[in-house]
Design goal:
Order of helices and strands: HEHEHEHEHHEHEHEHHHH
Strand content: 5-15%
Number of strands: 7
Strand order of the largest sheet: 1-2-3-4-5-6-7
Length: 280
């Protein structure tokens, strides 16, 4: 899987994020995943290690293990279920980052964590230069505006796939996207059109082609299962989702097949059109 991502041209890899099913793994498994990932990547790409956990002590242990494994930065999320205040969440994040003494990407996903990285949190964390980016996955477009206008020192990274175009329009230069595990070329095409070429007309066309997949993933209720199936379509075994999740059924697979095939065909056509225009 990692070799495929590198050959597809991704610019970095996060190990032990949500799609990596960290929540269903033991601490030993998580540490081994960080070690294996870093060993395989072998400094060919920047690596970010996930540290999300309910207990701050566990997040600190994972941050130290990530540094020992050789990551370039860590991913720091809100502890799920606990619902910390902004101040408590900031103290958690600071403790985790200091344990690793590495650059940190914040991960705001209140839909899963049950508490947001609110303005109190951002005011406190925004004073610490080690927190250099935020993966914003709230789905709230007003959060995007808030971060872009009031916290420009924290680089925006798209964490809500069906808002990628809006993130790029507001200055985001990176995109942490789970579906790139099986559709890296499509995601890179949208990123390149918007961030590199500043061609939002082309970007809208690519985004239009990608939206059915994004909506199927974000709104279908079977996110990890769908990613794993998408990977298996490439001939790479991702294994079944960990309990309590179950694999996609035949109807789910058929619908996802149609969505992915249509997207790939459409984006290939858009890319070929632009290539022909350059030749002429």
């Amino acid at each position: 899987m990692i070799e495929r991502l590198i050959s597809d041209g991704v610019h970095g890899i996060i190990i032990a994020g949500t799609t990596g099913e960290y929540y269903a793994q033991s601490m030993d498994e998580r540490i081994r995943m960080l070690e294996c990932g870093c060993e395989i990547i072998n400094r060919r790409l920047p690596v970010i290690g996930g540290t999300g956990a309910i207990r701050t002590e566990d997040s600190i242990a994972l941050a130290k293990a990530a540094k020992q494994a050789g990551v370039d930065a860590i991913l720091v999320a809100t502890p799920p279920y606990a619902q910390p205040t902004g101040r408590e969440n900031a103290l958690h994040a600071l403790s985790v980052q200091r344990a690793a003494d590495l650059p940190a990407m914040l991960y705001n996903y209140p839909g899963r964590m049950a508490a947001p990285m609110d303005e109190d949190f951002l005011d406190r964390i925004g004073q610490a230069p080690a927190f250099c980016a935020i993966k914003e996955s709230s789905g709230d477009i007003n959060r995007l505006h808030l971060l872009a206008r009031q916290y420009p020192q924290i680089a925006l990274s798209c964490g809500m796939d069906d808002q990628a175009l809006e993130f790029f329009a507001w200055g985001a230069e990176s995109w942490v996207c789970a579906a790139s595990n099986f559709a890296a070329s499509a995601h890179i095409a949208l990123w390149k059109a918007c961030v590199v070429d500043n061609n939002f007309i082309k970007g809208r066309r690519i985004m239009t082609a990608m939206l059915p997949l994004m909506q199927a993933l974000e709104q279908g209720g079977k996110f990890v299962q769908s990613i794993k199936y998408g990977v298996s379509r490439q001939g790479i075994s991702a294994g079944p989702p960990r309990a309590p999740l179950r694999p996609l059924n035949k109807d789910d697979k058929r619908i996802l097949d149609q969505v992915i095939d249509t997207m790939n065909t459409t984006i290939d056509r858009i890319e070929k059109e632009k290539a022909t225009e350059k030749e002429n």
